[in-house]
Amino acid sequence: MGTQAERRHSTQTRLLDAASACLVESGYAALTTTAVAQRAGLSQGALFRYFPSKPDLLAATVEHLFAALTARYEARFSKVAAAGGATVSAAIGLLAEVLDDPRYLAALELHTAARTDARLRASLDSVVHRHGENLRRLAYGLPLEPGAGDRQFLDDLIDLATLALQGAAVHRMAVHETRAPRRVIAALTRLAGLARAAQPSRLATNSPRPRHKNKPRRGLR
Predict the structure, then answer these.
(1) Which residue from 39, 58, 118, 149 has the highest number of Cβ atoms inside 10 Å of its Cβ?
(2) Residues of the chain with pLDDT under 70
(3) How far apart are CA 98 and CA 101, in angstroms?
(4) Rounded CA gap, 97 and 69, in Å?
(5) Cα separation of 135 and 151, whole Å?
(6) ∠ at Cα 168 (163, 171), nearest 5°?
(7) What are the structural domains, with CATH classification, of the chain?
(8) CB contact set of 202 (below 8 Å; sequence gap of 6+)
(9) Which pLDDT does position 112 carry in this prediction?
(10) Exposed/middle/buried for 124, CB within 10 Å: 0-12, 13-18, 19+?
(11) What does the H/E/C string look like for the chain?
(12) How far apart are CA 50 and CA 60, in angstroms?
């Protein structure tokens, strides 16, 4: 039977899995708490005991999706690293794969919906911030090739890559073609190479320029 905490976690996971599936398959406009509860095999009352409002459910669903996508990225990169291919180019390419995942595209729908939904935007704000910090933590721990860059370089590259690839993902949601993401990956790889070549002294001393701790980082992640 498990402990009460384990049963709560199991029920919550069932609800989040159901909400994720509804969001991916039917989109934000068609997602209802009724459909989620039915898919999870639970009552709406049970759903609202865990998530008091629909925005709360949606924010938790996005966090659930982000956690799954991050785990996928880490697993894929570990395999690439084990094969000796842990390069900045490989990291960018794998990030592009993750951002083209239907689950990520479903999460983007909620980001766009939040533009005119203040309650949803407020619910998503902390989730998006935590995801951005998780991306940074993951990047800092990647076993990249020697000379891949210092902490400031990785910060800049993460911002540039995520925002550019998110733009390409939104583009693909409206225009069904595959060339744009490939062009973005190629351009990011070239820019990363040029940036590393232009700062040999910083890389040699491994002394990143100081960051402004309170500087807000904008954009979807």
Answers:
(1) 58
(2) 1, 145-149, 178, 199-221
(3) 5
(4) 10
(5) 13
(6) 125
(7) 1-52 (1.10.10.60), 53-205 (1.10.357)
(8) 150, 153, 208, 209
(9) 87
(10) buried
(11) CCCHHHHHHHHHHHHHHHHHHHHHHHCCCCCCHHHHHHHHCCCHHHHHHHCCCHHHHHHHHHHHHHHHHHHHHHHHHHHHHHCCCCCHHHHHHHHHHHHCCHHHHHHHHHHHHHHHCHHHHHHHHHHHHHHHHHHHHHHHHCCCCCCCCCHHHHHHHHHHHHHHHHHHHHHHHHCCCCHHHHHHHHHHHHHHHHHHHCCHHHHHHCCCCCCCCCCCCCCCC
(12) 10
Residue with tokens 């490989």: 90
Half-sphere exposure of 184 (CA within 13 A, CB side): 26
- Locus of tokens 């995801």: 131
Give, in order, the Cα–Cα distances in Å from 27 to each of 23, 24, 68, 86. 5, 6, 18, 35
Q: Which pLDDT score is estimated for 61? A: 94
Q: 36 with 47: CB under 8 angstroms?
A: yes
Contacts (Cβ under 8 Å, ≥6 apart) of 89: 189, 192
| Lookup: tokens for 156 | 């800049």
With beta carbons less than 8 A apart as the criterion, state whether 70 and 182 touch: no
Contact between 82 and 43 (Cβ < 8 Å): no
What residue type is 145 in one-letter code? E
Whole-model pTM? 0.74
